[in-house]
Design a protein that fits this description.
about 120 residues, mainly alpha, about 85% helix, globular
């Protein structure tokens, strides 16, 4: 478990740095475009990583911790949300996926709004 934790931490550091860099070098008025791009790229990467690992049967805990949890998790948590919904849909759990999407978006927006209001 400690080894997996270290792999996730190192991957998380890398993902976080990769997320931070575009905000420093791309100067636009509305940063949500950068965030949107990062979220889409992260979702694509976690799909590639999990798919490759499953297809080639090289998906052990340390590499899942490093790439999926660490790098993609540090880069964007949206990637985890996306792959979980894809897996729900692939397993025919359409209602659960719709519920997960709705609750995530609505509660995320409400939590951000509440945090903003409480901090002002």
């Amino acid at each position: 478990m400690i080894k997996n934790l270290l792999f996730a931490g190192i991957g998380g550091f890398i993902g976080t740095v990769l997320r931070y860099l575009p905000y420093q070098f791309i100067k636009i008025n509305q940063n949500f475009w950068i965030t949107l791009f990062i979220n889409i790229i992260g979702s694509f990467l976690i799909g590639l990583i999990i798919g490759y690992g499953l297809k080639n049967q090289v998906w052990d805990a340390k590499w899942r911790s490093f790439f999926a949890v660490g790098v993609c998790g540090g880069f964007t948590t949206f990637s985890s949300f996306s792959i979980e919904n894809v897996q729900l849909l692939q397993n025919g759990k359409i209602a659960e996926s719709i519920m997960y999407i709705g609750i995530s978006i609505i509660s995320g927006l409400l939590a951000a709004y509440l945090g903003l209001k409480l901090s002002l």
